[in-house]
Amino acid sequence: MSRIYGERADNVRKVLDATPDEALKAQDLYERMGIAAVGNAEERKNVRNTLPALVRCGFVLKTGSGPDATYQSSGKAKKRRQAPDAEQGARKRERNALVAAAKLVRTRAARVEMQAANTPAPAKKPAFQLGETVEQFLARGGRVLRLAASWEQMERAA
Hints:
Blueprint: H1 2-18, E1 24-25, H2 26-33, H3 41-57, E2 60-63, E3 70-73, H4 86-105, H5 108-118, H6 134-139, H7 150-157
Antiparallel strand pairs: 1-3, 2-3
């Protein structure tokens, strides 16, 4: 389909380029292309669909709208794509390699590693120290008060 479209666009441009100073209406264009006959309605429709694309690309200038619209060649030539030089190709390959390397870094393992590296280490708790015994407390000069248990208080009261 695109090949036919390309050929059709080339044919329209050839007709318009043959008379660069003349603005043609759609009917004149059909007549010069040889598709004005009754049996060529489908081809005329295809040419009508091709014209807006040629106008957007700048190959054809359009004046007016509807059936009074006229089309004229802009004189803009088709540009051929130039093959990239070796240096440009090498830069492109290098850029693609860098992009591929960056994508490898984004793996799940790398994300987990990064998260682990950014997580602060938990604060260390001080080592547990045993409390001192009663004897050690008394040796230090402490005094121990003895409180009577509730059952002992009941016995004294009775």
